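seq as requested:
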Amino acid sequence: MALARLKIATAALVAVGAGAGLYAAMDDYVGFSHRRFAEPLAEVAATAPLKADLAFTMHDPPKPVPHVRFQDGDGRDLSLTAFRDRVVLLNIWATWCAPCRREMPTLDRLQAKLGGPDFEVVALSIDRAGIDAVRGFYREIGVEHLAMYVDPTGKAATELGAVGLPTTLLIGRDGREIGRLVGPSEWDTPEMVEIIRTRLATQAGSRAPPTSGHAPADGTQDSDAPRVRRPATSEATSGGIEP
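struct tokens:
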């Protein structure tokens, strides 16, 4: 009788342990699911040196870019049509992505070197916590030249075909994708700056035809070109790390 009770107790403990393991596995899966772009090799990527020699995968001919929507630092709805007539380096990132965090200062310096009426670095965060997470992170690392853009739904990354973070698209003045780079890079090296400058020169004669109010193909009306809002160092806010 005692042996039978012991077997029953052991079986119960095994069942409880299995249930707890299943719950933990499901919780991990849900956590991974809502971080659709969380890098599985985060620890390796966080300690690996940034590379400046990673080449873009160039498209010939350039590819159409889906009509994606996001918000700026003032909460205004925007799309990429707001950047027509500029070459855009669209960087898809998140504050919880370690490689993204490491390369962000180099993107800030690239914007300082080349940013203007002909070129813009558009750093598009997919943080679910929204613009406050971006604002906190920008203050934390001292970003001075990048404007804040966010898509808390993550739809933009999906529609643009980002398979991991960071993913960076080089978009021409006509709104088509010239090339992309998956993974982090050191964006302000002389070699990378020269790549961008060369593309700016070749794109000089390919300005997009004028559109009335930048109306996208789906019939919705876009806002005017975004006002670039620099991170306000006087605002007290905390950074947003994805749970």
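The radius of gyration is 22 Å.
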